[in-house]
Amino acid sequence: MRRDSRLSGVLHVLLHMAQQPGPFTSETLGKAMDTNPVVIRRIMAGLRDLNYVRSEKGHGGGWTLACDLSRVTLRDVYTALGSPSILAMGNRTEAPGCLVEQAVNAALDQAFDDAEALLLSHFGEVTLAMLSNDLRRRLGARKLQGMSAHHA
User: What crossing angle do the helices spanning 37-49 and 26-33 adopt, rounded to 10°?
Assistant: First the structure.
């Protein structure tokens, strides 16, 4: 099963936007996420609807941040993406007739629900400002070593 990496990708893009002034085109952001600009426009339109980003048309236009990074959490961005499935695992059969499988499903469902609740709770505690501060700290360490943000 292919992993859904949209949350990671969108966070990547938002942090780039936070670090550099001026608008970013969908093409530039598409390169950063290694995806088609059409995909970027679709994702960013959803973020725009929630006032996390804004867009300017025309020459010199593009996407800019429209939010206070300290007020937006990972959970907010996750929700803006449509709350994609967190866990790739699931039950073999959702409505089994077998009592053994019903017992297995009940145990797994509880574990899955607990894991998802814990992760979403953590997402709600981490702001984009916290990620941005961590990035700045890492950039400072890299600059001391003479490396850029994208190279190890």
Answer: 110
Tokens 């409505």 correspond to what residue?
95
Interval 14-23: pLDDT, tens: 998 998 888 9
What pLDDT is stored for residue 150 in this prediction? 61
Q: Is the pLDDT of residue 147 over 70?
A: no
d(C-alpha 4, C-alpha 59), whole Å: 33
- CB within 8 A of 22, min separation 6: which ones? 62, 64
Task: Note the pLDDT tens digit of each residue in 89-136.
Answer: 888 888 888 999 999 999 999 999 999 999 999 999 999 999 999 999
Question: Cα–Cα distances in Å, from 115 out to 12, 74, 87, 119?
Answer: 24, 16, 9, 6
For the four alpha carbons of 15, 5, 123 and 42, in that order, the dihedral sign comes to positive
Degrees to nearest 5, angle at CA 14 with 10 and 17:
140
Collapsing DSSP to helix, strand or coil, 111 comes out as helix
d(CA 12, CA 6): 10
